[in-house]
């Protein structure tokens, strides 16, 4: 019984003393200093001597264990080495697992776009749209649709904004400035009819011009041209379902060729069903299907503001990533500022019903906005 207890104690001591750290003769640490101070008050040992003393002590303890258990010293040392190697392998495997999980999360964010944030200012939105347009062009998408959240220069996104002047005011104060600034910043290198890439010099800013289509509609063409090159970017702003816009898009697309960029900015349709049936233009829907929806126009940047169960929500699409869903929550501190909560991602454009379960899962939206406001008022009065 005593021999077994002694053996267990010595085994434990061997494991502690013969750790990898102590096997390294260059190790210097407090345990070495403590050991030396207890066993030699006359002479201070060097770090190498301290390490060698510990190694020697561990060897003797293994010999004692081998003697008590009646086993060869080689077997005891082999077992100790195997335990150290096994522990090291477990630690390395755990570290590799943690790193793999970290990389998987990072890759998932990169693939689905969950790293994207809501652009709350005019400039942020233009820059985010510019990046999406350029990424799409690199993938060969030269027929694009952009839907800005109409934020005038100097304003922020989540403001109660009205447009009593209709489309004319929307173009004058927001859609026009957003489009012109986007075309000033976009850098794409289109190809000509022969497939040659435009030798555009990005050191010179493009010449950006605007031309009204129908003033009462608030519609216009915005163009960016680079002097001395065939590089031209055209954007039609605020087109609607009138046949004139469909035919103008067809004419401009043919004039540019598929190698140059054509953008439709904030069109008033959502899909081909927006055309409906028009007695004056019975073929308008079929024409739109052919010229717009069958010609490769793709939504590359969209920023939608939605009200879902009284919550201010955002749906963001930036090519080539998934739709990102957000909602505004309020702080609990006066004057009650707002902050943005990322709810999740969807591959397809989200419906209102897609937001509801995501909102319900978040503690910030457990209560309705009215109830949250009432609670804050009560706290303020206390």
TrEMBL record:
Name of the protein in its database record:
DUF1995 domain-containing protein
Q: Which keywords belong to this entry?
A: Signal
Signal peptide boundaries: 1-25
**Top-rank lineage group of the source organism:** Eukaryota
Task: Please state every residue range assigned to the domain named DUF1995.
Answer: 119-333
Q: Where is the composition biased (Basic and acidic residues)?
A: 77-93, 100-110
Q: Which PANTHER family match?
A: DOMAIN PROTEIN, PUTATIVE (DUF1995)-RELATED, DUF1995 DOMAIN-CONTAINING PROTEIN
| Annotated region (Disordered), positions in chain | 77-110
Q: Check the record and name the InterPro entries matching this protein.
A: Chloroplast_ADK, DUF1995
């Amino acid at each position: 019984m005593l021999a077994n207890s002694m053996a267990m104690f010595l085994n434990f001591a061997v494991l502690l003393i013969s750790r990898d750290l102590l096997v390294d003769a260059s190790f210097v640490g407090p345990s070495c200093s403590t050991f030396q101070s207890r066993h030699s008050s006359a002479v201070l040992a060097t770090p190498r001597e301290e390490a060698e003393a510990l190694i020697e002590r561990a060897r003797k303890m293994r010999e004692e264990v081998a003697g008590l258990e009646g086993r060869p010293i080689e077997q005891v040392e082999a077992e100790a080495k195997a335990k150290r190697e096994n522990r090291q392998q477990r630690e390395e495997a755990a570290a590799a697992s943690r790193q793999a999980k970290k990389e998987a999360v990072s890759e998932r964010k990169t693939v689905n776009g969950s790293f994207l944030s809501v652009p709350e200012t005019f400039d942020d939105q233009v820059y985010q749209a510019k990046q999406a347009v350029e990424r799409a062009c690199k993938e060969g998408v030269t027929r694009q649709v952009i839907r800005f959240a109409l934020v005038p220069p100097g304003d922020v996104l989540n403001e109660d904004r009205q447009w009593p002047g209709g489309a004319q005011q929307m173009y004058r104060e927001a859609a026009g400035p957003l489009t012109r600034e986007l075309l000033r910043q976009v850098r794409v290198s289109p190809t000509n009819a022969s497939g040659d890439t435009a030798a555009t010099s990005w050191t010179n800013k493009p010449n950006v011009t605007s031309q009204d289509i129908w003033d009462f509609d608030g519609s216009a063409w915005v163009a960016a041209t680079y002097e001395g090159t065939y590089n031209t970017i055209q954007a039609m702003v605020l087109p609607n379902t009138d046949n004139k816009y469909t035919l103008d898009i067809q004419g401009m697309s043919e004039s540019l060729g598929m190698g140059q960029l054509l953008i439709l900015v904030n069109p008033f349709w959502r899909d081909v069903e927006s055309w409906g049936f028009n007695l004056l233009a019975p073929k308008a829907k079929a024409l739109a299907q052919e010229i717009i929806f069958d010609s490769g126009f793709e939504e590359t940047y969209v920023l939608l503001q939605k009200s879902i169960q009284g919550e201010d929500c955002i749906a963001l699409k930036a090519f080539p990533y998934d739709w990102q869903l957000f909602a505004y929550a309020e702080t609990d501190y006066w004057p009650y500022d707002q902050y943005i909560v990322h709810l999740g991602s969807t591959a397809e454009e989200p419906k209102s019903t897609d937001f509801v379960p995501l909102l319900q899962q978040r503690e910030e939206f457990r209560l309705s906005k009215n109830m949250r406001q009432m609670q804050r008022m009560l706290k303020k009065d206390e």
